[in-house]
Design goal:
The structure holds two protein chains of two kinds.
Chain A (H helix, E strand, L loop, with lengths): L13 H10 L5 H11 L1 H18 L1 H4 L17 H6 L29 H37 L1 H15 L3 H16 L7 H11 L3 H28 L2 H8 L4 H37 L11 H10 L6 H28 L8
Helix pairs in contact in A: 2-14, 3-6, 3-14, 6-7, 6-10, 6-12, 6-14, 7-10, 8-10, 10-12, 11-12, 12-13, 12-14, 13-14
Chain B lengths: L1 H26 L2 E4 L19 H10 L4 E3 L6 E3 L2 E6 L5 E6 L6 E4 L4 E4 L12 H12 L9 H4 L5 H5 L10 E5 L2 E5 L7 H4 L10 H7 L15 E7 L3 E6 L16 E5 L3 H9 L5 E2 L6 H6 L3 H4 E14 L10 H9 L3 H9 L4 E2 L26 H15 L10 E6 L4 H16 L3 E6 L1 H10 L4 E7 L5 H9 L13 H12 L3 H18 L3 E13 L3 E2 L14 E2 L2
Parallel strand pairs in B: 1-12, 16-17, 16-18
Antiparallel strand pairs in B: 2-3, 4-5, 5-9, 6-7, 8-9, 10-11, 11-12, 13-19, 14-18, 14-19, 15-19, 20-21
The chains are: A mainly alpha, B alpha+beta.
Chain lengths: 350, 560
């Protein structure tokens, strides 16, 4: 747990302390963590990659050379020369092969003549939105439930944790698949004017992302609730909480100012390490056709489409796969780095 | 020394065994095929119940109808019947069946195909009674055969029995003697002999069905009489049929040349991988790999593009909002689809851009030679003209104000690409944004029957080679297949008249008028393309190519 700096005993005169302070600057836990994180090269690399992807996702419309949905059917499966040279089995039409050579597409075009690079860039939006939404629901719902259960205890704790147990009993992936299938069937043909119709059109407007968010959100908070509750339970009995209580601190103040800051470290670490699983859940759903609606690009869907022609055009699956791979690795490296930085006791332990 | 003696004996024994096994393995000709198969089990291989082409390909190897289709011309030829005659009023048909064709069954213990004996120890033969039983079983509402409505119209009381208003004993089917089958139809229809040979009225074994119940199509129960007999059904994986030595062979359905045929249930991508690994001998290659296959010196030689009597289209539910409200909108959507571009750039299998519904080549169907200008063609100017009218009709200011339209499709093989291409065409040519709704393939078609969405992708293949099977079968207002709720009295009258007419050219003219109503005047569907059969076959397979969407595996052989 966080190292709490004990105040020096009164044996040293105040003046002396003041003079010492001129040379030793006080360091907060966060400054200390940042310092440790900075020394961790893979973590900083991960952070840089994530920031880069965030910028790409936000600026997609100005960065992408073409809109993601414009098809030039005649240019289907076209590829630039360097991509053709990369794969021995790809042979250009000029050399008696089958690949249309085109310089219009930096990474080539897909089977409908859409620019692969633009689709990879726009695909970042879906993956990063999921990387944001998953932890958000986990933090809001999961942390809330965990704090409440852990701090209040007793019956409330019991009831909340049984709900969490119940939700935990479903295998996550299966649960998400069931949810998505349910959404698809029940919102595909709703009576006009109903809530279902409103949700359905919202989902359609977001290219099918809304239901993915709901699906991932519904399954993302249970782990967080358990973790937060456990942390609260261990912190609740600590001396400084007792002291705060003895000094007449209100519950709200104790939770916000004393409990929460002290459990935040492990929570951030665990959430960062879970982000890749949200991203892969989305990619998986899109891969099996339960994710975003075409033509909205998602890396998972692009990999699925590309894998169908992997014998002829391996690059169509490779580029989105590389993008997915880089983001997953970046979040894992950053998560590891954060763990080392925020939770020194865990250092070197796996 | 003794040891050495025994060792020698053992070695001799082992060598003899290897020799026996080696010889038999060499002689066994096993064909592994994926043609016409998809990932997962066929719905059924019960002739009375099956309604999909996957099951049909398998049933065709084991069961032969009274009549059958010539695989190269699609014409009606003798199957289990040697000949037939029609009464003077044209209503009653009498079929003379081949004598003494035994029911046969695979015995797993002896690994041989055996004749089936009755309780008295006599061989069971395929008789007219089996045909009568099949007719009663398929039309019995308790059997719940979804395709029963096709033969029902070709036997007196058929539709009444299906509706539960008459007993199966009222059906006008009769076994005059063991090998003479007589049937009376309510109307004289020219292509009735086609219907009497369809798989859903193939003779089926009453005794086996009564003994095994619903599981009679499993390998331990199912007998058959055609060129092959069921050997094994590994569910969701493969079906193996083994040569039936008791099938005598006819001019049109000879004895099987191969010893076994194994049907593998795989999607095209996996089929292609297995084909390249030499574990499959014949496949439908994935469209995504066709470019490479065509340019490859070896693979291109193994590729064949043949006829397939099917039509790819987008159905329009006339009872749904927006698309149901404006015929001009439907026309605009139809004119704005560049079919040639789809065929050239997306499907790439030599498909023919479709202008109407019934596949040319079917009996009495219009052809591109007889009616080059019939139906709907890609025409941007006309599409935009119709769009202007549609905006008035719908009372909206611009195409962007048209309420959301949904286009549903079964999310398998290449449909997603074709649907996205069409979505894009509508958006560029008309400014109409259509929402795509990919659905689970396994439940897709049943979901259409329940409640078809505004627009939906579909395909239709021939059951019998006549335009009637397409136009009247799908779009007549009371047809069970009429998912889009297409209703037009003139259309109904035309297809009814064409059904009973006898002169082919006269019928073709009537069907052309009906097609004009279906694809232009009222627009019940948007034709996209006419299918081709894209297959790859290993060079060591000697085979024929069927034009009727059912391969005749008895003609296939392995030459090395």
């Amino acid at each position: 747990m966080a190292v709490v700096e004990q105040p020096q005993t009164n044996t040293t005169p105040r003046a002396e302390v003041a003079s010492l302070n001129q040379y030793v600057k006080g360091e907060s836990l966060w400054q200390d963590a940042w310092k440790r994180l900075r020394r961790n090269k893979p973590a900083i690399l991960g952070l840089a990659v994530i920031l880069a992807w965030i910028i790409i996702a936000i600026m997609a419309s100005s960065l992408a050379p073409k809109p993601f949905d414009i098809q030039v059917l005649a240019d289907n499966n076209a590829a630039p020369r360097w991509v053709i040279d990369l794969f021995p089995q790809m042979i250009a039409k000029d050399d008696g092969g089958y690949v249309t050579v085109s310089t219009n597409y930096p990474l080539g075009a897909d089977n409908l003549g859409r620019d692969l690079l633009s689709r990879v860039i726009y695909g970042a939006r879906v993956s990063l939105a999921v990387a944001f939404i998953g932890p958000m629901t986990a933090l809001i719902v999961g942390l809330g439930v965990g704090l409440l259960a852990g701090y209040v205890g007793g019956r409330v704790d019991n009831a909340l944790m049984r709900i969490v147990d119940l939700m935990y009993a479903f295998p996550t992936l299966l649960f998400v698949i069931l949810l998505m299938t349910f959404f698809r069937t029940s919102f595909s043909n709703p009576p006009p004017g109903s809530l279902a119709a409103a949700l359905g059109s919202l989902d359609a407007g977001s290219g099918g992302m809304l239901f993915i968010f709901i699906g991932i959100g519904l399954t993302s908070w249970m782990g967080m609730a358990r973790l937060a509750r456990g942390q609260v339970l261990s912190v609740r009995e600590k001396e400084y909480i007792e002291a705060a209580r003895a000094l007449g601190g209100k519950n709200r103040r104790i939770v916000w100012s004393h409990v929460l800051p002290n459990i935040l470290g492990p929570i951030i670490v665990s959430e960062t390490l879970t982000i890749p699983s949200y991203i892969s859940t989305e990619a998986f759903l899109s891969f099996i056709g339960l994710g975003v609606n075409p033509p909205t690009p998602s890396w998972g869907m692009m990999i699925a489409e590309g894998s169908r022609s992997i014998g002829s055009y391996p690059h169509q699956a490779l580029f989105p796969a590389l993008a997915l791979f880089s983001v997953m690795f970046a979040f894992n490296f950053l998560g590891d780095g954060l763990r080392d930085a925020l939770d020194p006791r865990m250092r070197g332990v796996d | 020394m003794n040891k050495g003696k025994y060792l020698g004996l053992v070695m001799v024994l082992a060598m003899t065994l290897t020799l026996i096994v080696g010889v038999s393995a060499q002689e066994m000709k096993v064909i592994h095929t994926g043609v016409g198969m998809v990932g997962g089990d066929p719905e059924s291989i019960d002739p009375n119940l099956n309604e999909a082409s996957q099951g049909n390909n398998i049933i065709r190897t084991m069961y032969i109808g009274l009549t059958t289709q010539d695989e190269e011309t699609g014409d009606v030829v003798p199957g289990l019947a040697t000949d037939w005659s029609q009464s003077e009023d044209g209503l009653t048909w009498t079929f003379n069946m081949i004598h003494d064709i035994p029911w046969a069954k695979y015995n797993a213990d002896t690994d041989t195909v055996e004749q089936v004996m009755d309780e008295a120890g006599n061989p069971r033969y395929v008789t007219a009674n089996d045909v009568v039983y099949s007719w009663k079983r398929v039309l019995d509402p308790a059997t719940a055969s979804t395709y029963a409505y096709v033969p029902a119209e070709f036997v007196v009381n058929g539709t009444a029995v299906m509706a539960g208003e008459a007993s199966v004993d009222d059906l006008a089917v009769k076994a005059v003697d063991d090998y003479t089958f007589e049937i009376t139809a309510p109307e004289a229809v020219g292509f009735a002999t086609n219907i009497y040979g369809l798989w859903m009225v193939n003779p089926v074994p009453q005794w086996a069905i009564e003994e095994c119940g619903d599981s009679w199509t499993e390998a331990d129960c199912m007998p058959s009489y055609g060129p092959f007999v069921l050997k094994d059904w590994s569910h969701d994986e493969s079906i193996t049929v083994v040569k039936n030595p008791f099938w005598p062979g006819t001019d049109y359905v000879p004895q099987a040349q191969a010893d076994e045929v194994v049907f593998h249930f795989l999607d095209p991508q996996t089929q292609f991988a297995e084909y390249q690994a030499d574990t499959l001998d014949a496949i439908n290659p994935p469209i995504e790999e066709l470019d490479r296959i065509k340019s490859d010196a070896v693979l291109s030689q193994e590729l064949s593009i043949g006829t397939n009597p099917c039509t790819y289209y987008i159905g329009i539910n006339a009872e749904k909002p927006v698309v149901g409200e404006s015929v001009h909108l439907r026309r605009a959507l139809s004119y704005a689809v560049d079919r040639q571009s789809i065929v050239d750039n997306v499907t790439k299998g030599g498909q023919i851009p479709a202008q109407w519904f019934s596949r040319p080549g079917l009996n009495a169907a219009p052809t591109l030679e007889t009616n080059p200008d019939l139906g709907a063609k890609f025409d941007v100017a006309k599409a935009q003209e119709e769009l202007t009218l549609a905006l008035d009709e719908l009372g909206v200011a611009s195409a962007a104000d048209i309420p959301t339209i949904t286009l549903a499709y079964n999310d398998s093989s290449g449909h997603a690409a074709i649907m996205q291409a069409i979505q894009q065409m509508w958006s560029t040519e008309l400014g109409i944004t259509v929402q795509l709704d990919p659905r689970d393939p396994s439940t897709y078609f049943s979901s259409l029957s329940e409640d078809a969405p505004q627009l939906y992708r579909s395909g239709w293949c021939q059951d019998y080679p006549d335009a009637d099977n397409f136009l009247r079968g799908v779009f007549r207002s009371d047809s069970q297949q009429n998912d889009p709720n297409f209703v037009n009295a003139d259309f109904d009258a035309l297809v009814d008249e064409a059904r009973l007419a006898t002169d082919t050219e006269e019928r073709r003219a009537l069907y052309a008028q009906a097609e004009e109503i279906l694809s232009v005047d009222q627009v019940g569907m948007i034709p996209i393309y006419w299918y081709t059969a894209v297959q790859m076959t290993k060079p060591y397979i000697e085979r024929t190519y069927s034009v009727v969407n059912r391969e005749a595996y008895e003609n296939w052989n392995i030459t090395q």
